[in-house]
Structures are given as C-alpha cells and as structure tokens.
Specification:
348 residues, alpha/beta, 2-enoyl-CoA Hydratase, Chain A, domain 1, 16 helices
Length: 348
C-alpha cells in the first residue's frame, strides 16, 4: 500500500468524508496519515460547500488502534518520535477547535492515536463493536493525544482508573464515561452518512438524525464499580491506590492490582502526575504542551522501546522495566518528564 491511499478523502454532497484505509494494520496512524488528515481538514474548514466532516475506517475490526509504534521503534535514537507526536498533537489541537461539526464513527477497536482523531470531535459515535482503551502504561508510554484533558473530566475517578489500567470500555461504558455521545448500530453508519449528505445541515439536523437511529436502554458495567473506583483511585499516589485496592478485598480489586503491577512503574507515576495536573488545567493547548514534553522525554528513555519489543517485536509479553518497581521511581525523576524541551511546537 502506498502512502497516498493509507487514508482516503471524499465529498458526498455537503459532507467531507475521511476513511482510514489500513485495515490489515488495524488502521494504525502513520506520520503521513496524520499530516494528510490535518491538511485536508484545513482545506475543508474554508470550503463553504462542506458543512460537516465524518471520519470512519475500512474494515470491521478496528477504527484505529493508535500510532504506528513499529515505525517509532525502528526510528529509535532519532528525532522521529518527537516529530511524530508534535504533528499528531497539533492535529489533536486543531480537531479540538475545529469550526465545523466533526463526526467520528468509533466502530471497532479505538485506542491511543485512534482516540485522538475521534474523541475531540463534536459527535463521538460508538457501536456494538467498539472497544475503547488507553493502554499506554502497558508499553512504557502514557495516555497522550489529549488524555490529560478528557480522562480527568470523566465522572469521579474513572479517568484515573482508565489511564493507569488500560481498562477496555464497550459502547455503553463510553457513553457513561462521557467519552462518546451516541450509540448507533454499526449497520446503520452508512445510513447516517447518506442522510447527512443530503440535508441542509445544522447541528440540530445532525442531532435529529443521530437521535433517530441511536440505541437506548443499555447499562454500563462501570456503574457497578464506580464507588470502588472513586474510593481507590482518589488516593494521592499510585502506591496509595494499590493500598486502597488491597483494603477493598474483592475480586475486582485483586484483578486490578494484578493488572497495575504488570505496567511500567515509570509510566504509572508519569500518568498519575499528568492526569492530576490536567484536571486543574483550564486550557486544552496547555495540556497538549505538557504531553509533548512528556512524550519527548519518554522517547529518549528505555521503557517505551522495551514495551514495544515485548508486545510487538518479540511478542514475549515480558517487558523488563527499568526501574522495575514503583519504589525505585523517585518523584524527582518523574518531574524530569514534565520539563520544557528544545524546539517544542506552539499549541496555542
């Protein structure tokens, strides 16, 4: 597949259509895809014949599972990581402020960078096939692409729970958490495109079409454990979260401890600081600047590349984290990841 057809652009009536077109790679974002989407959105923003944007994906397994981490791994030791996240975060920021309705069909697996090109839109649509997660702590990274903004704004401590554990949400969970707006059957998505491309579009029209087709009467599994999540994940450190989980004495708490202890200790502490800081930030662009700094420092370290080795390259599932325990990760070391870096882009 050439770079030119990794992502497709089309116009249907008043609708600009973006299709992620790497189904065999679960539509993982390449640098070319990030730049191409950004450039096309700029064009459509000033095109008076385009009233709204829809982004969807080819294939029925994944909307997008994140960035192309293999490319990041292959380019370790270079400036590629900083270049990639810089351009990706600028796209996320542009989407957050996009002047036209932007509908994301979050059909299938939606993770990492796939969340970044969907969740910042005006209408986030999930289906019965949606699997939403921010699994970055399991590969030595941290939940980025604006997660420092949207995770702390989930109800209670759900965002911290998702960020540290990488817990996978279904459609009902996404609606409950405020991470999606509409639950629509996957076989109705083409109908949505057809209807919206033919009408005199306003936000009210869009909402009417989506309301007409959306599913109701569902229940989220998160609702059943939210009180425990809030008790445990409101603690003042990752270590204290684990202590509170032990005090719960439940199967859920024991399972959660087992999940957390498999993650990169450094990533866990970075994520905790990031999400607590993001909760008090008033400007989205400041969150993106913070995440760019963290990412740039992460790409200079070892845990991210070790995580990719274990999960993607050798697939042994046994990363050797360094440091290997939470106790070995000092606060002063975590603070280093949040310091300004040379040449960082302006997100404002």
């Amino acid at each position: 597949m050439t770079q030119e057809n990794e992502v497709l652009f089309d116009v249907q009536g008043c609708l600009g259509l973006i299709t992620l077109n790497k189904p065999k790679a679960l539509n993982a974002l390449s640098l070319n895809m990030v730049v191409s989407i950004h450039n096309q959105l700029i064009v459509w923003a000033s095109d008076k014949t385009i009233e709204l944007i829809v982004i969807k994906a080819d294939g029925n397994r994944a909307f997008c599972v994140g960035g192309d981490v293999r490319a990041l791994y292959d380019n370790r030791g270079t400036n590629y990581g900083s270049e990639f996240c810089g351009k990706e975060y600028l796209l996320n920021t542009y989407l957050f402020n996009y002047p036209k309705p932007y509908l994301a069909f979050m059909d299938g697996a939606v993770m990492g960078g796939g969340v970044g090109v969907s969740i910042h839109g005006s209408h986030r649509i999930v289906t019965e096939r949606t699997i939403f997660a921010m699994p970055e702590t399991g590969i030595g990274l941290f939940p980025d692409i604006g997660a420092g903004w949207f995770l702390p704004r989930c109800p209670g401590e759900i965002g911290m729970y998702l960020g540290l554990t990488g817990y996978r949400l279904n459609a009902a969970d996404c609606i409950y958490s405020g991470l999606a707006d509409y639950y629509i059957p996957s076989n109705s998505l083409d109908t949505v495109v057809d209807k919206l491309s033919q009408i005199d579009v306003t936000r009210s029209n869009i909402n009417d079409v989506l309301d007409e087709i959306s599913i109701r009467g569902y229940e989220s599994t998160l609702d059943q454990i939210k009180k425990s999540i809030d008790r445990c994940f409101s603690a003042d450190s990752v270590e204290d979260i684990i202590s509170r989980l032990r005090e719960e004495k439940s199967d859920w708490a024991e399972e959660t401890i087992n999940i957390i202890t498999l993650k990169s200790p450094t990533s866990l502490k970075i994520t905790f600081k990031q999400l607590r800081a993001g909760a008090s930030m008033k400007i989205f662009e400041d969150v993106m600047a913070m995440e760019y700094r963290i990412a740039t420092h992460v790409y200079k370290g070892c845990d991210f590349f070790e995580g990719i080795r274990a999960v993607v390259i050798d697939k042994d599932g046994k990363p050797n984290w360094d440091p290997s325990s939470l106790e070995e990760v000092a606060s002063i070391d975590v603070d280093e990841y949040f310091k300004k870096v040379n040449g960082e882009p302006s997100f404002r």
